[in-house]
Amino acid sequence: MSSDVQNEFFHCTLCDFKIRYDYKGNNPPFFKKEIKFLESVYCIRDPFADDNLGGIILGGDCSTCGKSVCVSQNCSMYNLKRCCLYCAKVGNHSY
User: Where is the Cysteine-rich DPF motif domain (predicted)?
Assistant: First the structure.
């Protein structure tokens, strides 16, 4: 197991979704080396992926308020940066 794997809990502050995550960052060790995300994401290893390569993106941190939000369309959006729907609705986003 890589030293980059964190094995902590992700919690969406909008829908209260909670799950263990394996990595937070933009270059997960269990994705192909060519894949680098434009944002820091929370992700887990894909338990069904061959050779343990692959993952599932859970969410990220709002670029405006910093709260963690899942990728559900009811909780966040991504347009150059991740934004929680609360900040998007009040026009408080920074992009």
Answer: 10-93
